[in-house]
Amino acid sequence: MSLAYVDSSCIVAVILGEPDHQAITEALGRFEALFSSALLEAEVRAATAREGFPTVDPDGFPTEIEWVLPGRPLSREIGFALGAGRLRGGDLWHVACALFARESIGAEIAFVSLDASQGRVASKLAFEVPALI
Q: How many Cβ atoms from other residues are within 10 Å of residue 27's Cβ?
């Protein structure tokens, strides 16, 4: 099964019709399931509001997302991610949630993002980081 954790950068690019949004949509469509943190909703809604787009709730996202909702602090995962490189708070949370998801699912998952820093850290943490564009 082909699984991936998707960062908000990909969903924002598709919704806003940014360059290469069709290639991103096709790349996301190759995965059988996509996972993300609930932070994705806030990031997507903030970006679309900033750009003057209509409100987009998760039901209007271009792909179905399975939510990663940890029932505990992710201190261990955050520590692993910080050991692999520096990230801003939201980016760090996404990588930590991807680590949590991989462990919870018990299967390998890819990490899909347009953010180079996240990609580097995720790669160091043994995620497949496919090139989207």
A: 19
Give the 3-state secondary structure percentages of the chain, helix then strand then coil, rounded to 5: 50, 10, 35
pTM (predicted TM-score): 0.93
Residues in a beta bridge with 111: 5
**Is there a contact between 89 and 81 (Cβ–Cβ < 8 Å)?**
no
* C-alpha angle 21-26-32 in degrees, rounded to nearest 5: 130
pLDDT tens over the chain, length 133 residues: 599 999 999 999 999 999 999 999 999 999 999 999 999 999 999 999 999 988 787 777 888 999 999 999 999 999 999 999 999 999 999 999 999 999 999 999 999 999 999 999 999 999 999 987 6
Other beta carbons within 10 angstroms of residue 25's beta carbon come to 15
Domain ranges of the chain: 3-124
The CATH H-level (homologous superfamily) assignment of domain 3-124 is 5'-nuclease (3.40.50.1010)
Classified as helix, coil or strand, 111 is strand
